[in-house]
Specification:
- There is one protein chain.
- The protein is of the alpha/beta class and 652 residues long.
- The chain has 3 domains: 5-277, ANL, N-terminal domain (Rossmann fold, 3-Layer(aba) Sandwich); 278-468, Rossmann fold (3-Layer(aba) Sandwich); 473-651, ANL, C-terminal domain (GMP Synthetase, Chain A, domain 3).
- It has 22 helices and 27 strands.
- The strands form 7 sheets. Strands 4-3-5-6-7 form a 5-stranded parallel β-sheet, with helices on both faces.
- Helix 5 (119-127) links the parallel strand 5 and strand 6 (137-140).
- The longest helix is centred in the middle third of the chain and has 22 residues, at 299-320.
Length: 652
């Protein structure tokens, strides 16, 4: 086999290379029953060899698809690579998806083989078997609860591994030959889009797509086997897959799989990652936890926190970027680092992070600045499933809160007259699976991918994304209306979990608000406000006043921006329920499906614009035990304080 890492053109070849040159180094660590277990690169390669041979014995052939559903686990990543060893195509599915959501990708890709982490995922696959007649084999990792399952499709992962080891012993040359057949142009994986605007599409990516983009950024950031990453987002999301599968196989760094979703923060403190990636909602949730804890702290601690965070806001980013700062401010910042910033970075698990990325959607500038002011090198990147993630990345020393950085090496950009961003890149997807019309609509004859995002390049060569092109509109007076920009400003506040803004072709802007239950409940308890649950708390007058204060601050900021001064939020209501992916209101990557929400809650939207003070709502509620009931409530609608541009400047 080829030994030069730079010429290895498939993931199985990269894995075998790492097993040879750094076989004893850690490749994957998993926390199980409170103890970190380590897979070395040699162990990883041995597991993949046996698993691939087991799949081959079971009839898995080149070009076939393997569905994978589960959390980040070493065995899941081994299964991905095992399929690729045989020229197969792994198809990760979202582990929190309901059974019916899994049916379409399995039907669409005619999947016959599936890897399921545990009983919960097996049950989902068994539920949709009548709609998915191609599904013949289901391999499960965790045997707990599976003792009495007798379906002929089922087999344990350990049994498959046993079959594979026996096959490998009989024909050791078989797998080497299969791996050597692999080419850069072969399909490496298929990821289904989140379906923000309709039916999910299978995005077909080659080994070349994923390896080229992973390598470009690994070289840019000097990533190597000294780096550590925490793998805690869904493996079906292209972002997690790049950072926990593609890039480690290129750069040789170690990934760590947390024990459970509830232990991510504590596990992160233990592994101390050096390289970190999360969408803005994760950074929002971490900040909310910090804010809630500080509200509960003693008066002296609250005063120290607020005082030194003011120092960090003023000079923290300048110090991180090694720009000039006065001696007094530098002394104050170093004192703050000892008392506040370093302990806070440790609590967040970011004490050793040297590179942190956020992407997937826009991050609020205030939220972005908060982390950088603490000395965390948080940067923005821009990309999508169709572009193998890496399109734009902010280099060190060129970090801005309102851009996503310049194009990564090898990427070409241009804009249409309507400001839509077009991309050509070595990472550009091959096609949408079985959907030639959608492929032609997204990728033109010259190879330009139409992103659907509106933006422009600033004077420094950085790309600035305004919003989704289809979502950017205008108010009745012609003012630019960028709903995502408004929503991100609102979500900076720890009390606001989600927001949906409406205003296109209207005379003013109105918004739905979801409160953050944890943060607002803590706030309410400290004020002796009684409540029975989310709906009751959300409709309390003091909570409306709290939300109104947040909107007032956002409107004051907007009034200082000439292009957006008239798009301040005039009216709002707090929804009676949290927006949920299971209800179709969010995608599985937690993006708002604005069109669906506007249609589903059309009467609520109209009530805000009609100037009403309340609106009646009825909804079906389904309980965990299967029972359902009709819920009815009168939702309050309130005005938000707005500012004339001059008044906002005086307030500042």
């Amino acid at each position: 086999m080829t030994t030069d890492a730079g010429t290895l053109d498939t993931f199985p070849k990269l894995l075998m290379h790492h097993a040879r040159v750094r076989g004893a180094r850690p490749a994957i660590r998993e926390k199980d029953l409170g103890i970190w277990q380590t897979w070395t690169w040699q162990h990883y390669a041995d597991e993949v060899r046996a698993l691939a041979c087991g799949l081959a014995e079971q009839g898995f052939r080149r070009g076939e698809h393997l569905a994978l559903v589960g959390d980040n686990r070493p065995r899941l990543y081994a299964a991905i690579c095992a399929a690729q060893c045989l020229g197969g195509v792994p198809v990760p599915l979202y582990q929190d998806a309901v059974a019916t959501e899994m049916a379409f990708p399995i039907q669409n890709a005619e999947i016959a083989f599936a890897f399921a982490e545990d009983q919960e995922q097996v049950d989902k696959l068994l539920e949709i078997l009548p709609q998915c007649p191609t599904l013949k084999r289901i391999y499960y990792d965790d045997p707990r609860g599976m003792r009495h399952y007798a379906q002929p499709q089922l087999m344990s992962y350990d049994k498959l591994l046993e079959i594979g080891r026996a096959s490998l012993a009989r024909r050791p040359e078989f797998l080497e030959e299969e791996i050597e057949k692999g080419r850069a142009s072969d399909t490496a994986a298929m990821f289904f889009t989140s379906g923000t605007t309709g039916v999910p599409k299978g995005v077909v990516l080659t080994h070349e797509n994923l390896i080229d983009r992973s390598r470009a950024v690994a070289e840019m950031e000097a990533l190597g086997d000294h780096d550590v990453v925490l793998a805690f987002m869904p493996p079906a999301w292209i972002g997690q897959n790049i950072f926990s599968y593609a890039q480690p196989l290129v750069a040789g760094y170690c990934i760590c799989c947390p024990e459970a979703a509830e232990t991510v923060v504590s596990d992160m403190r233990e592994v101390a990652p050096t390289y970190y990636f999360a969408p803005p909602r994760v950074f929002e949730a971490l900040l909310t936890q910090v804010s809630v804890r500080m509200e509960d702290a003693a008066a002296l601690k609250r005063w120290l926190y607020r005082s030194f965070m003011a120092v960090a806001k003023r000079v923290g980013t300048r110090i991180l970027e090694r720009r000039p700062v006065s001696l007094l401010d530098r002394i104050l910042y170093y004192l703050g680092d000892f008392l506040i910033y370093a302990p806070l970075r440790n609590v967040l698990g970011m004490s050793k992070v040297r590179i942190a990325y956020t992407g997937g959607e826009a991050i609020g500038p205030d939220l972005f600045s908060f982390y950088r002011s603490l000395g965390i090198n948080l940067k923005q990147l821009y990309g999508s499933t169709e572009t193998s993630v890496f399109v734009c990345v902010q280099p060190d020393g060129q970090v801005k809160s309102d851009t996503v950085g310049p194009a990564v090496k090898g990427v070409e950009l241009k804009f249409t007259p309507q400001r839509e961003l077009l991309i050509r890149s070595p990472g550009l997807f091959k096609e949408y699976y079985k959907n030639p019309q959608a492929t032609r609509e997204a990728k033109d004859a010259e190879g330009w991918f139409h992103t659907g995002d509106a933006g422009y390049v600033d004077q420094d060569g950085h790309v600035r994304i305004i919003d989704r092109a289809k979502d950017v509109g205008k108010l009745a007076d012609g003012t630019l209306f960028a709903p995502k920009y408004l929503e991100n400003k609102l979500k900076f506040f720890p009390y606001l979990k989600e927001a949906v803004a409406f205003g296109d072709k209207r005379e003013r802007v109105c918004a739905f608000i979801n409160i953050d239950m944890e943060a607002v409940a803590d706030w309410a308890e400290r004020r002796n406000i009684a409540f029975s649950g989310y709906t009751d708390l959300a409709q309390q007058d003091p909570v409306y006043e709290l939300v109104a204060q947040c909107l007032e601050q956002v409107n004051a900021d907007l009034a200082r921006e000439p292009e957006l001064a008239n798009s301040q939020i005039h009216r709002f209501l707090i929804l009676h329920k949290e927006l949920e992916a299971d209800d179709g209101e969010l995608t599985r990557t937690r993006k708002v499906r604005r069109g669906f929400i506007a249609e589903k809650y059309g009467s609520l939207v109209e009530a805000m614009f009609q100037g009403r003070n309340s609106v009646h709502v009825e909804a079906q509620v389904k309980y965990e035990d299967g029972r359902s009931a009709t819920f009815a409530a009168e939702l309050k609608i309130r005005d938000a304080k707005t500012f004339a541009p001059a008044a906002a400047r005086r307030a500042a």
